[in-house]
Design a protein that fits this description.
By secondary structure, the protein is an all-alpha fold. The chain has one domain (25-140): Serine Threonine Protein Phosphatase 5, Tetratricopeptide repeat, CATH 1.25.40. Helix content is 76%, strand content 0%. It is elongated and about 60 Å long. The chain starts with 15 loop residues before the first helix and ends in a 7-residue tail after the last helix. 26% of the residues are buried.
């Protein structure tokens, strides 16, 4: 039985190799702690920019929808393409782009956009319905490349 101040082996002090590891890890940890405020500022700026792009994309998606409702399909295409450029994860932008391209009878351009809308948001029923409609219309048109 160890006496006071003695070690039974199970509670032995760390080996010299363990101490070297601790010392080696201390410098990177200190560097991270020093860089943390700057990293947070950079992340905040990046997140702010992403939020601004997403907000602008949402506005463009709404504009493209207005163009589609007014049967201004080329304007819809142009606006939806801008929205996709700002937010490539916006299923609604791909849906609007696909719909307007289909309205121009550009099936081979429309269908991949509708497929992307469904891939991005499988629950977006309008995109699913548009995709079915586009494929049917392309078949009616004779499966031709476009028109």
């Amino acid at each position: 039985m160890p006496t006071h101040g003695q070690d039974d082996g199970a509670l032995s002090a760390r080996s010299p190799a363990d101490r070297r590891t601790t010392v080696r890890l201390a410098a990177p940890v200190a560097a991270v702690l020093v860089a943390y405020p700057a990293l947070r500022r950079q992340m905040s700026r990046t997140q702010s920019a992403a939020r601004a792009r997403a907000a602008e994309a949402a506005m463009l998606i709404e504009q493209s929808l207005e163009h589609a409702r007014a049967a201004r399909f080329q304007e819809c295409v142009d606006t939806a393409e801008q929205a996709v450029g700002l937010n490539p994860n916006a299923a609604a932008a791909y849906n609007n782009l696909g719909f307007c391209l289909a309205s121009l009878k550009l099936w081979d351009d429309a269908i991949p956009n509708a497929e992307e809308a469904v891939r991005l948001d499988p629950a977006l029923r309008i995109a699913q319905n548009n995709l079915v409609w586009m494929r049917q219309e392309k078949l009616k048109a004779g499966g031709s490349k476009d028109r």
